[in-house]
């Protein structure tokens, strides 16, 4: 089943301009009343505070910026909930991974596009306006490259275009099954590339996103399990000015095997041997020492936290409070996409810290500071850095990624300023998002994406066959 794109078309030489008026909006300077935002094509071109609405303005009571899911494996949305039966042995990340491999081996390019399209529709309905797609499902079922080496990446780009979400595409280099260059096993055959092959894949990926407004490309060495030091050194320059993402220290077993291979823990090894700086995002970094936490924060890298997936897989809990105290930056990602929601990730992040420390409001920035606001501000800034977006938020020059909230929602009623974020993140559950603009295009209205139904039908058709 194909999905029709609803495109905005402007005559040559004409700009597509609109104005929005918000009773209260979260600007970089803080909550501000009576804000008029001018959007020209896909960009915010003017923000005026303290002004009455114009006759042509579209009016909404509450607005916040859209934020990024900095880490997603789109194809895994299709297997959400399929790995919840205990096997004969202890069920762990490693047993879940075998289920994931089996699912990935069956997917066609058309399946991948259908699954990713619904995922991106759901992300937009939940307040995500950009996704960092850590993409490693590259090849055909037998592991042979497609005629277009970026066939699967092109399907991801197509899904982002259909849904309207901003895209940072991160082709992943995957060559080995474990540390020290161990040969890959059969379940990984669709992921595997040689360095030269991967360079061609990255070039083709750039071509695939060339016509998507605001899209960019980085690289993602999958993990120290999957790349050798020489391969890592060879592929990092392929990122050019784009971001570099890598899974690190997600599991205790991974840490133990890295020590056996190198004498160093994964984050420790990266900090000593790789050019880790502000362009880097270390995904998970769950099992880190105090020294690693301080060094990672000092290098300016982003910690890519995926609290729902980390809980689902039994990974553990990142030392977020300690990382923030050291000046660290984090963003959130939906990773396995077992559940998709800005508030779900931020709430789980805070609740994990509460369970770990047996305290409340752990990630608040200090006395009298809203925990919801602290979480939202950190995730907005960290996600932007991790996906190489220099300007975000409700300000001139930023991509017009805007979320309006329903002021009549029971968990938002009567609230103002930061209490709105606290109510949304910790109490609203569902239904609090009214509208979403992504790149200036209003894709969600009354909480519903304009392509929800057709995207669901295409997804269901694909997944019924895969599950069968």
Descriptive overview:
The structure is a single chain. The chain is of the alpha/beta class and 468 residues long. It has two domains: 17-65 and 393-454, Urease, subunit C, domain 1, CATH 2.30.40.10; 67-386, TIM Barrel (Alpha-Beta Barrel). It has helices spanning 93-106, 109-125, 151-163, 195-209, 229-235, 252-262, 266-273, 290-299, 307-312, 320-325, 342-357, 371-386, 418-427, 452-467, and strands at residues 17-27, 30-40, 43-49, 58-65, 67-72, 128-135, 166-173, 216-217, 220-221, 244-248, 280-284, 302-305, 329-332, 402-405, 433-438, 441-445, 448-449. Strands 3-2-1-4-14-15-16-17 form an eight-stranded mixed beta sheet, with helices on one face. Strand 6, helix 3 and strand 7 (166-173) form a beta-alpha-beta unit. Residues 4-14 have low confidence and may be disordered.
Distance between the termini: 18 Å
CATH superfamily of the largest domain: Metal-dependent hydrolases
User: Which of globular, elongated, flat, extended, rod-shaped describes the shape?
Assistant: globular
Helix content: 25-40%
According to CATH, the fold-level topology of the largest domain is TIM Barrel
Order of strands across the biggest sheet?
A: 3-2-1-4-14-15-16-17
Proper CATH architecture of the largest domain = Alpha-Beta Barrel
Low-confidence stretches: 4-14
Q: Overall mean pLDDT score?
A: 95
Quickly name the level 1 CATH class of the largest domain. Answer: Alpha Beta
Rg, rounded, reads: 21 Å
> How many beta-strand segments?
17
């Amino acid at each position: 089943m194909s999905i029709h794109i609803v495109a905005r078309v402007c005559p040559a030489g004409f700009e597509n301009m609109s104005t929005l008026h918000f009773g209260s909006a979260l600007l970089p300077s803080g909550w501000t009343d009576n804000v008029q935002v001018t959007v020209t094509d896909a960009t915010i071109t003017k923000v005026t505070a303290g002004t009455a609405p114009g006759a042509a303005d579209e009016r909404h009571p509450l607005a916040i910026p859209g934020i990024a899911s900095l880490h997603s494996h789109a194809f895994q949305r299709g297997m959400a909930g399929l790995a919840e039966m205990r096997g004969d042995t202890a069920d762990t990340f490693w047993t879940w991974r075998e289920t994931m491999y089996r699912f990935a081996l069956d997917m066609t390019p058309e399946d991948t596009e259908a699954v990713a399209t619904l995922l991106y529709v759901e992300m937009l309905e939940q307040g995500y306006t950009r996704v960092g797609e850590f993409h490693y499902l590259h090849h055909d079922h037998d592991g042979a490259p497609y005629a277009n080496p970026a066939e699967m990446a092109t399907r991801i780009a197509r899904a982002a275009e259909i849904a309207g979400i901003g895209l940072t595409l991160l082709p992943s280099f995957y060559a080995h099954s474990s540390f020290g260059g161990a040969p890959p096993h059969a379940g990984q055959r669709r992921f595997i590339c040689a360095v030269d092959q991967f360079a061609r894949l990255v070039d083709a990926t750039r071509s695939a996103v060339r016509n998507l407004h605001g899209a960019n490309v980085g690289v993602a060495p999958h993990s120290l399990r999957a790349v050798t030091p020489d391969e890592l050194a060879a592929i990092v320059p392929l990122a050019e000015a784009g971001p570099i993402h890598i899974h690190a220290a997600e599991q205790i077993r991974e840490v133990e095997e890295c020590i056996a291979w190198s004498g160093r823990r994964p984050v420790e090894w990266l900090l000593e041997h790789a050019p880790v700086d502000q362009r880097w995002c270390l995904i998970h970094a769950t099992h880190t020492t105090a020294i690693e936490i301080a060094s990672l924060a000092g290098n300016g890298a982003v910690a890519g936290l995926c609290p729902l997936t980390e809980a689902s897989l039994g990974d553990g809990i990142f030392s977020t409070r300690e990382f923030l105290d050291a000046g660290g930056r984090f963003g959130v990602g939906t990773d396995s996409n077992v559940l998709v929601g800005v508030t779900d990730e931020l709430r789980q992040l805070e609740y994990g810290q509460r369970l770990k420390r047996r305290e409340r409001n752990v990630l608040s920035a200090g006395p009298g500071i809203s925990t919801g606001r602290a979480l939202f501000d950190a995730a907005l800034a960290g996600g932007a850095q991790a996906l190489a977006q220099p300007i975000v938020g409700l300000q001139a020059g930023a991509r017009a990624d805007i979320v309006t909230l329903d002021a009549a929602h029971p968990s938002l009623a009567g609230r103002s300023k930061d209490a709105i974020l606290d109510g949304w993140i910790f109490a609203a559950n569902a239904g609090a998002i009214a509208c979403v603009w992504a790149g200036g295009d209003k894709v969600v209205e009354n909480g519903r994406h304009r392509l929800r139904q057709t995207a669901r039908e295409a997804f269901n058709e694909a997944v019924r066959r895969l599950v069968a």
